[in-house]
Amino acid sequence: MSKYHNFMQRPLSRREMLGICKGGFGTLAFASLFGGLPLVGCDRPKKGLAASSDLYLGPHYLPKAKNVIFLYMDGGVSQVDSFDPKPRLAKENGEDPRKKFKVDNTQFDNVGKILKSPWDFKQYGECGMPVSELFPHIATCVDDLALIRSMTSNFPEHTNANYFLHTGSGIQGRPSMGSWMTYGLGSENKNIPGYVVLDGGLIPPGGLDNFKNGFLPASYQASVLRAGAEPVANIRPQESIQNLQEQKLGFIKQLDQNLIGKMGEVDAVESAISNYELAYKMQSSIPELTEFGAESEATKKLYGLDSDDPHTKGYASQCLLARRLVERGVRFIELTCPNVGADRWDQHSNLKQGHERNAHAVDQPIAGLLKDLKSRGLLEETLVVWTGEFGRTPFAQGSNGRDHNPSAFSMWMAGAGIKGGTIFGKTDDYGYRVIENEVTIHDLHATIMHLLGLNHEQLTFRFGGRDMRLTDVHGHVIKDILA
Amino acid sequence: MLFYGKRSFFRGLVFFFVVLHISCGDSKEFTEPLPETVDFNFHIKPILVQNCYLCHGPDVSSRKADLRLDVYEGATAELEEGGHAIVPGKPSKSLLVARINNVEEDMIMPPPDSNLKLTDREKALLEKWIDQGAEWKEHWAFIKPTTDLATNDKLAIDNLINEQLAKKGLEKSAVADKNVLIRRVAYLLTGLPPSPTDVESFITDNSKDAYEKMVDRYLNSPAYGERWARHWMDLVRYAETKGHEFDYTITGAWKYRDYLIRAFNEDLPYDQLLKEHLAGDLMQKKRYDAASGNPESPLGTAFYAMGEGTHSPVDIRQDEADRIDNMIDVTSKTFQGLTVSCAKCHDHKFDPISAADYYAFYGIMESTRFSPVPADLSREDEKTVKTVNDLKTYMSQLVADKWSEGLKASEKEALAQNTAVAEESATDYQVLGDFRNADFGGWVSDGLAFGQETTLGNPLVDKATGRLMGLDEGRASSKTFGAGVFGVLRSPDFVLNTDFIGVKARGKNSLVRIVIDNFQLIQNPIYGNIQQKVGESEWNNYKLKVGPWKGHKAYIEILPGEYNRHDYILPEDAYVEAEYVIAYDSLWPKEIRHKIPKGTLTANSNKPLALSSKLVKSLNGKLKKGQLPDRIPELKTALDSSLNLEKSLVNTSFFYGVNDGFAINSPIFNRGSYQEPSEEKIPRRFLSALPLGDVPFKSKGSGRLELAEAMLHKDNPLTSRVMVNRIWHHLFGKGIVETVDNFGLQGKLPSHPKLLDYLAVKFQDDGWSIKKMIRHIVTSEVFKRSAVRSDALAEKDPINIYLASFPVRRLESEAIRDALLVVSGSMDSTLYGPPIKTHLTEFMQGRGRPNKSGPLDGAGRRSIYQEVRRNFLEPMMVTFDRPIPFSTFGKRNVTNVPSQSLIIMNDPFVVQQAERMAKQLLAQKELTFDQKIEWIYMRTFSRKPSAEELAKAATFIEVLRGMENQSEEEGLDKETNIWKDYCHSIFNLKEFIYLI
């Protein structure tokens, strides 16, 4: 058995394996080595995981998806301007919304008139899904998308809503979904972290805590990858002389082995020694990732790497990087938004300009990613998730913006296990509230986990006297959008 | 788990067991004799929980055959089928015994389809326990600790540990050598490596008490407080910013950190530390720092205010509920090792903590108000206040004496008019506070600024001439002791029911605020209109729009000073005065009727001029007409002294802590939702399962002092146990109860219950002295054992539960970073002070990012002095497992990941330290090669290198030299480079970051 069967985990020592199997729950990790066998009849351990926190657990049942690419539309895309057309807004443009329906408190409390969408919608694909002019490229992929128009969030503020979307709780400090996924499944590549955030320029409000491990061990926090000479912190050797680092590492290893000889078997120290080998390999495997030399011109063009818009170009390289990470078995990849100079998707004013600039930056690269994944057969095992933290109001904030709306928004998923061309859920005539098949953030999490072969009720971690879950005590898998 | 031989759900998967050649070890376990007395908590309950409770436990919905084994009454009741599951004292008549021993598939318990099976030992334990009378006991942690050992017995720890070792047949490791010991003690007591001189002197000290002397030296080092304060900071989610979107500063958080360092260094008794945390602001006898004279006790309360802070939440009530939940969580875990927060939505699933208990706590927190608190109100100041007050009384008395005849006459007139103004009920406004009379009408004055009464009747004396100008009319004034003095005038809680609140006020650099649902981060969007700046010396009507929050609980604050991005500051000219506060809709009312209390107040010794406002007006009229004397020579002298003294009362240093509000009893929120409150309100009280838990608090405020007293009650079974266990945890890397923050039923059982109880009793007997407890533990032989383990030990006690050897552990993030600074010679050991700004890398992005990065080496200061910004946590700290500050973490995770290796391999900070160390080394010209290596080894490993290590070093240095010579690189001189690379390699050795 390879000693390092997955990357960010502490390898099991013989003794630990023994201890764990005696307790009962190591068998799952072990079984998962057999390559995703459906674990029929295996109950998940309910207690005591905290004690063996560094294990990854393996799926509960046969997974559809191996990896997740999470395209985070930070700030909240307007649903009525993108995927949920509402002709009534045009009809009642300029009228007082309070005379039409009950208006909730909003973040800025500056409620204007009903505001029609500045963009036209057209139907696309065999399924005929309507998409606005904002996303002409994504529109060509609609037969691969399952669109949910009935998303809700619990929070109308960015930070809480970001934490909620990322961690299942509106409060700072809980583990991010990427941390949960790697805790549950580990990574398939020992030379690259299992949970990677590609920082496109804008870290969402709430900061890096959106990607942290919370009470899970620090091994499950995201590694932030940035464009540039040093894509990951401390990945670049400080030695300027060739082979100097290797010489040093050799010396270190020698003396470390002496220590082991002196101490007897000490698992922790042994693992710390092994980590150096992994760290050393990461130094070359990570920079290699960002080298696009081997990619064909056609591929680059597909993503929009040749675009005149520097933001399109930037996001294109993030999307291409995401595909390369998927190819290398990275479990969970999140892309943050580029800084297009008109803020994130958070258009409290100047909706038209702001949404157009954001859309222009991401539309072609995302479509390129979907097509590229598909042509390589990777879409079958990769789940692509596109969402903001909430939607926007159908009435104006001031004259030409839209405020936050947690009562309805649209998101889509594509790829592994997803029934393409689906539209699920329904909002009222204004796109203000969900009226049919509400999908909560917990439901979204449950569904993502389900596709990865994880039962959201069974992946738990003991903290503060409770068996904590990503979905807390909520969440239902949305079966209707599954293939 | 291993040690109670629990059965696994996976027993069916025999396949894996075979593959891995794992014996389940039943037979081995059985070779250990059964305990003399079988204890319900330690021997029986684990068996029942694991094997029986699913169908015969507390949960009615899954219970089978109407049999429950979790309570005596249930287990001994007559069964449906006749007979009794358990007949105490009679195993042969107990059907449970028959069923567990039955061989028939449909009769045996647990049933085969459960995949559960009792071992022979478990069966024997159950039988013996029934034979001994089948005694059910309360959860072990709720039974008061007792010990029959003398608490001054120096060998008690060793005896208790060795007793277990003997029972398990484990052979203990020898005592470690002196180099190892001093390194261990230095790191665990101070978080720093010992200096080579200290190592030398300890090695050469052959006196009998050399070890004890060495321990005492480290216990008395100021670095001790820094180390142990940091342990404590993990419990209280210490941070210097509020996180959320913009990561606002928490005013003066670092003053709490310094308070902790001082407290640990002074060995503040733990009971006092606890009390100051829970109610330091309410203690009758405050503690002051001997050096500065500043108050210590209130600083403890800063821990309440260390939580996350949300600005502009749309649901402000939910925000309060979340904040309070976090406060309950942290308070209950930290001090009682209980997870009270689990009872937020329903009674605790496992512990005897009810939802009512949670909401009793909730009321305590809800009645507590956040506030800036002056950190510089010294004992001297308290004396000055008294003197100034006496002078003011004296001045009033002078006037009262001089005017006695005129006063009497005026009073008579007033009485004749029957002074009460007929009460007219205003329809267009409500008066929330009227300060034109003598008192504040139920408002509270926190801090000094507003004094205890309004200005009504105070003699107004001309500063230059000393002439009496009249008597002051009534208003609330923060200038009782001049401008720049801190204080807040706060209303009682009330329910908002109008569109506006109006305050007639004047002042400079001051504020009036409406605090709705205890929400403090008042700003736009949403909350911009519930705070107004008061900045004009003319009286003004300040209007605050509260309409959107009708139905919410609120209170009003009037205070000098301002918030700069929520960081409180008090300019020296800041003051505020107010006449009245009203609630109204639409337009400001034309006239606010002044309700004068009936009759006149009688003069007393404290307030010789206690007069109604009407009387004051009439007296001032008479004075003007020359009917009363205005020359009282003594007034000027008194005024001069008073003004002179007041100057010292200006406040400039603050921290964010708490003040007491008014008692609020909370309803239970059904399923944790404030939108579904129960009818009944739960009185504020302690946890019902613990002593004093059924006594409602009597305090008119929050009751935090009573809470502290309940926790410190002599019969409380947890307070002392939880703390000694934390101390043990920090010294051995593992608690006697491994789940240090959870002593409830879901927590782990203590590995050495007798030892825990002995320590808990001793701790109290020794006056809650943390230092004495540490000294007692580290001077035991158990602590001094070598970490080297025999194969036999590794086999029999793989996770070292029984401490036959000292547990190997990785150093904490702070200790690693601090050690780098020490060995490289760049440590600046200055104590205390504002935090060093966080060094920001390119990877640390997001809103609230500071404009400037701090220095790479943190100015050479210890890690505890580095800023803790919630949204910009230092990567090295987080990667080496410092917890993310959102809840109590008594026990850190210990991970082992390549990103840690990458930091020591490649982080510029580490490389910088290696270079500094090399330069230090080369500055000593006279050293031979061997001496150089020895110098490095003594600093980094507290020992001399072996001959082999010297040889390896020599070879390696030659390799480095060869590479360096070939290199064409410019920069450092080659010799420095060579030694830099050597030192850097040494930092990367496991021996450097492990305590062995």
Task: Give a description of the structure.
The complex is a heterodimer of chains A (483) and B (996). With 483 residues, chain A is of the alpha/beta class. Chain A has two domains: 342 residues, 3-Layer(aba) Sandwich (Alkaline Phosphatase, subunit A); 56 residues. Helix content of chain A is 30%, strand content 16%. In chain A, the strands form five sheets. In chain A, strands 7-6-8-1-9-12-5-13 form an eight-stranded mixed beta sheet, sandwiched between helices. A three-stranded antiparallel beta sheet of chain A has the order 2-10-11, with no helix packed on it. In chain A, strand 3 and strand 4 form a beta hairpin. In chain A, helix 6 packs antiparallel against helix 7 and helix 9 runs parallel beside helix 10. Chain B folds into five domains: 136 residues, no CATH class; 147 residues, no CATH class; 184 residues, no CATH class; 228 residues, Sandwich (Jelly Rolls), CATH 2.60.120; 88 residues, no CATH class. Helices cover 38% and strands 10% of the residues of chain B. The radius of gyration of chain B is 34 Å and the shape is globular. Chain B starts with 13 loop residues before the first helix and ends with a strand. At the A-B interface, helix 1, helix 2, helix 4, helix 6 and helix 7 of A face helix 15, strand 20, helix 28, helix 29 and helix 32 of B. Chain A: Pfam families: DUF1501 (PF07394). Chain A: It comes from Kriegella aquimaris.
Describe the structure using short key phrases:
heterodimer; A: 483 residues; alpha/beta; Alkaline Phosphatase, subunit A; eight-stranded mixed sheet; three-stranded antiparallel sheet; 30% helix; disordered N terminus; B: alpha+beta; 5 domains; five-stranded antiparallel sheet; 34 helices; 21 strands; 10% strand; globular
Helix-strand layout with pairing:
The complex is a heterodimer of chains A (483) and B (996).
Chain A: H1 14-23, H2 26-32, E1 67-72, H3 87-91, E2 111-114, E3 121-124, E4 129-132, E5 145-151, H4 158-167, H5 177-185, E6 195-198, E7 223-225, H6 244-263, H7 267-289, H8 297-303, H9 310-327, E8 332-335, H10 351-375, E9 382-387, E10 391-397, E11 401-405, E12 409-415, E13 422-424, E14 426-427, E15 434-436, H11 441-451, E16 461-463, E17 466-468
Parallel strand pairs in A: 1-8, 1-9, 5-13, 6-7, 6-8
Antiparallel strand pairs in A: 2-10, 3-4, 5-12, 9-12, 10-11, 14-15, 16-17
Helix pairs in contact in A: 6-7, 8-10, 9-10
Chain B: H1 14-19, H2 26-31, H3 40-51, H4 53-56, H5 72-76, H6 95-101, H7 120-131, H8 156-168, H9 178-190, H10 196-204, H11 210-219, H12 222-235, H13 253-265, H14 270-279, H15 316-336, H16 355-366, E1 368-374, H17 379-402, H18 404-416, E2 429-434, E3 444-447, E4 459-461, E5 468-471, E6 476-477, E7 487-490, E8 494-495, E9 500-508, E10 510-516, E11 531-534, E12 540-545, E13 553-560, E14 562-564, E15 567-569, E16 575-584, H19 613-624, H20 634-646, E17 654-660, E18 666-669, E19 677-682, H21 704-711, H22 719-732, H23 753-765, H24 770-778, H25 781-784, H26 791-796, E20 809-810, H27 813-824, H28 875-879, H29 898-906, H30 908-923, H31 929-941, H32 947-966, H33 974-987, H34 990-993, E21 994-995
Antiparallel strand pairs in B: 1-17, 2-16, 3-7, 4-5, 6-16, 7-13, 8-13, 9-12, 9-16, 10-11, 10-13, 14-15, 18-19, 20-21
